[in-house]
Amino acid sequence: MKTDSMNFGKMMIAALALVVAFSTTSLANDGEKGDNKSELKFIGNVENQPVFELSLANKMEDEYTVVFRDEYGNVLYSEKFKGAGINKKFLLKSEELGDTALNVTVKSKNGSTEVYSINRSHTYVEETQVNKIK
Known about the structure:
The protein is an alpha+beta fold. It has helices spanning 2-21, 94-97; strands spanning 37-46, 49-57, 62-70, 75-83, 86-91, 102-108, 113-118.
């Protein structure tokens, strides 16, 4: 009888540990206010000009201001976008920019701001291989 109650106690502890380990937390709000996330990524080159894609993964419709600035603070591009789930592509003319760093500011009307930095560098790599055929 004593071993049955010890086994039952061990099983209850294991079951309680599993319940605690695999339980999920739920937030009081549904998280819509904090879901305004942006992502800026390099997607490739078009005629040797870099192309970047800005994804605004917001669930609620909002107004965004996107500003491209050089390292001296000069505004190179500025535009406002409105909507939900916005994807925009930007082609930068690299011969006009040189190797200067750019800052991209994404500001929503509700007050959240995200800043990205674009740094460019050029490298030249030459590889030579010698392989024995026979």
